[in-house]
Amino acid sequence: MTLTYFLLFLAASAAAAATGIIFKPGEWYVGLKKPDFTPPNWVFPVAWTYLYVSVAYAAARIAPEAGSQIALALFAVQIALNTLWTPVFFGAHRLWLGLLVLICLWVAVAAMMLAFLQLDMLAGLLVFPYLVWLTLAGALNFRVWRDNPRAGAQT
Amino acid sequence: MTLTYFLLFLAASAAAAATGIIFKPGEWYVGLKKPDFTPPNWVFPVAWTYLYVSVAYAAARIAPEAGSQIALALFAVQIALNTLWTPVFFGAHRLWLGLLVLICLWVAVAAMMLAFLQLDMLAGLLVFPYLVWLTLAGALNFRVWRDNPRAGAQT
């Protein structure tokens, strides 16, 4: 049964991951002024692949536990927000709105991590790198918004 | 506790709904050849608002039940795919890929309806209009793809 859960959470994550293939950074992103801490481009797909798989595994660990429903509801919230961010930022070039989505996503993932921790220590710990990565992504999104006043759709 | 669930599922649905505000149909959609059964534009936000709220309520009904985890995992899959469709179709103009996303979404929602039905009859029935709407949306997406060979990104 845990394999069924893993495949379902992986399917949800694949929908989120697909946005990164459909809405590529492209010339627009290359031309942006970016902060010193911006990771090289190759880091993004590697980091996201690791995070999607490890969080799907973490969710599959806690899903069969009694009382996992709030944790699973939080998984649904974060995967929908995760799917939303890439089209908003790379598709619509809405830098400020992207930052707002990331802040909501960060809160949802932090709540999910706490819910996972209460059910299974390892599952909760597996979510921690996701939260760290979102913190970096949020800082990057903020600086891109602040430092490129004419690059986005201004909202 | 059911209110907490309802608000969480509504938050996930809000992320999906936001795509409809960010990626509006616009001139491109107006210029497409559309089938006779295309609903007038005002129907779409009304139908989606009803569907998002009623499915969030249905999910909140089944969430506290023992053994609801598979149903909740399926909720996560469908809300991620739902969030993906609008940017693919209205953002990237990928008509065929949009149809593929809709087919996956239809399968996920059908499975979710069956899972809900086993837990709570009313919750399952509340998902049925969503499946009917997706069937219509799939037929519309198919016809737009078939009848507008030069309108999309051709994938």
From TrEMBL, chains A, B:
CDD domains: TSPO_MBR. InterPro entries: TspO/MBR-related_sf, TspO_MBR. Gene3D superfamilies: TspO/MBR protein. Keywords: Membrane, Signal, Transmembrane, Transmembrane helix. The chain crosses the membrane at residues 42-60, 72-90, 96-117, 124-145. Residues 1-17 form the signal peptide. It is found in: Membrane. It is a multi-pass membrane protein. The keyword Membrane applies. Belongs to the TspO/BZRP family. This is Sensory protein TspO. It comes from Thioclava nitratireducens. The lineage of its organism: Bacteria, Pseudomonadati, Pseudomonadota, Alphaproteobacteria, Rhodobacterales.
